[in-house]
Fold:
Amino acid sequence: MKARGDGSDELRSEYDATDLHDGVRGKHYQRDQSGTRLVRLDADVAAAFPDEKAVNEALRQIIRKR
Structure:
């Protein structure tokens, strides 16, 4: 999608404003500033780990071996 450079704050015609309820500007800002990084694992990789703790430990072991 190409940004419009006209500074307009109007919704494009293909968006229905009634679908855009409960929007909160900046609701993830605080979390994003905390240093947390979210990464998407491929399904086969995610299936090998029961939880995020297991993923972190596996990555730490790889880092230590460097």
Notes: The two ends are 41 Å apart (CA to CA). The chain has three helices and no strands. Residues 52-64 form the longest helix (13 residues).
